[in-house]
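Hi team,

As requested, here is the filled-out complex form for the 3-isopropylmalic acid run. I kept the field names the same as last time so the parser does not choke. Let me know if anything looks off before we queue the next batch.

— J.
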Amino acid sequence: MPEYKIAVIRGDGIGIEVVEEGLKVLKAVARTGCFTLQLTEFPWSTNYYFEHREMMPKDGIETLRKFDAIFLGAVGHPKVQDHITLNGLLLPIRRAFDQYVCLRPSVLYPGVKSPLAGRKPWDIDLVVIRENTEGEYANVGGFQYRDQPEEVAIQSSVFTRRGCERVITYAFDLARSRNKKKHVTSITKSNAQGYGMVLWDRIFKAVAEKYPDIATDSLLIDRACMDFIRRPEQFDVVVASNLFGDILTDIGAVITGSLGLASSANLDPSRRYPSMFEPTHGSAPDIAGKGIANPMAQILTAALMLRQLGQEAAGQVVESAVQKVLYEGKVISPDLGGRAKTTEVGDAIVAALGAPAR
Ligand code: NAD
Ligand code: IPM
Ligand code: MN
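And here is what came back:
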């Protein structure tokens, strides 16, 4: 029986609460399945930072390298600047383990009301493939003349041929294997960002030629934001730069009900390193500690993790359980218009494991 070693990092805010529910579901599905999970928790977070002045120990990356996957909640604390916490934990992991694909589905499930008028279940069913290791997040730059009137800040974007090619190719392969609309949309702003994103556009064209069975579009990010709201049903697979993918996926989340439903996976498709599974949302300090966060994004993220570990059936069981709870509409958290607590939603999903999908 396969055993998977999972590093668990709850992080900050609602990360602590929603990971609890994710683990509840993972343990329950492992009990019924044909695999075991060895879960190891690490207290790395902003609370850890308050004590140690670092978000994780110096050998944190080396420690994580031995795991099959990383299951993370969220990072970010109102008392510490985000660039310190995020650059101390989340972003270095994505880069160190070459998790160049950030995969974020947005699906309008039965039982969930879109804020967009007239949308029926499944009308929205898209996946954003966000480039995840370079682009606008390359972490190249610096300050000159710090705190002087002449102060200069430089933040460079990095687009490499290899980096663009591999993530765009992943998107095309996904469009083929999804076998839905067989369509890939590329998102840039190459009318204003005249180098890096021009390279991206060129590579998108070249890769598209190798996939004659897949239709394509190339949109500018401003237009794409509008189309996510005006006609989201047209999208199938969307491939975008790091920053644009980040922004688009919050839109994708809210048009399909809530950020509390938006799963996400940071993948190293080569499988040299562990992939990391953390929902699209952050630590939500405005609701942290109140027990009202929606744990479904974290639980659907656990489903993505099971699939990537090779446990496709278990991943489907978890996703179906979430769908059942949504469809019944009885145990729903406040972000979706209900009154259920985080733990009640987790319990309802555990109870629904194995029930037929809707
Ligand atoms: P956020 O995603 O934390 O919250 C945005 C809004 O959505 C808030 O009103 C929040 O209450 C709501 N929300 C988010 N998740 C929810 C859930 N599961 N259930 C119900 N409501 C939910 O974004 P923010 O407020 O911009 O950022 C807060 C902190 O999180 C910042 O420090 C930010 O840097 C960090 N952040 C971390 C990650 C991550 O760790 N992956 C992602 C995004 C933001
Ligand atoms: C996300 C988050 C992160 C990102 C932040 C917290 C650095 O917004 O995962 O969507 O932009 O990648
Ligand atoms: Mn984001």
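Two things worth flagging: The chain has a mean pLDDT of 97. Residues 170 and 177 are 10 Å apart (CA to CA).

Thanks,
J.
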